[in-house]
Amino acid sequence: MLKMFHVRRAPVNVYAVAEGLGFEVHDYDFPESTSAVMIIEDDIRAIGVNESFSTVRKRFSVAHELGHYLLGHGNFGDSKSTFEDGSYNYTDPQNRQESEANEFAAELLMPAIFLKKDFSEGPPSVPQLAKKYQVSEQALWIQLFSLELASQTDPSAGS
Other CB atoms closer than 10 Å to residue 103's CB: what's the count? Predict the structure, then answer.
């Protein structure tokens, strides 16, 4: 994806990626339990994100929905398909798909290749990296643990 959209540094413009894949992204007045909804109907591709959420959460939600689409979750080949993400239910049979979409979103927004380069330049602070990548500190920590980079952060920088 990074090569396809000529992304060479953080932050990744997830809205440009969505647009490049033919999706319009719109803020929408969803209930608190709904993060985002993807709709594909005939020639329309849209992702609605909860307008009350923070910018970083909206970015992750868009990337997450793109993950569902690109990983083939749901019946997106049908003439009308929707995929709604609400609260995370660990007993739900779609849990695996949710995890996969989260992993896709994390890698799209915080690519391992970019993070490893940041770490090669010295121990970074989590707050500074979160700001650079325009993600939440929680999402960044999860990605750092996944990449086994968490122990290399700068503990004196408020992380």
Answer: 16
What does the pLDDT look like over 51-79, one tens digit per residue? 999 999 999 999 999 999 999 887 554 43
Taking 3-state DSSP, the helix, strand and coil percentages for the chain, each rounded to the nearest 5, stand at 45, 15, 40
Please tell me the pTM assigned to this model.
0.84
The CA distance from 70 to 73, in Å, is: 8
CA distance to 61, 65, 81, 90, per residue, from 31 (Å): 15, 17, 20, 20
Does residue 115 surpass a pLDDT of 50?
yes
What residues contact 159, with CB distance under 8 A and at least 6 apart? 125, 126, 127, 137, 153
Q: Domains of the chain (ranges plus CATH)?
A: 1-109 (1.10.10), 111-159 (no CATH)
The amino acid that residue 100 corresponds to is E
Amino acid (1-letter code) at residue 16 = A
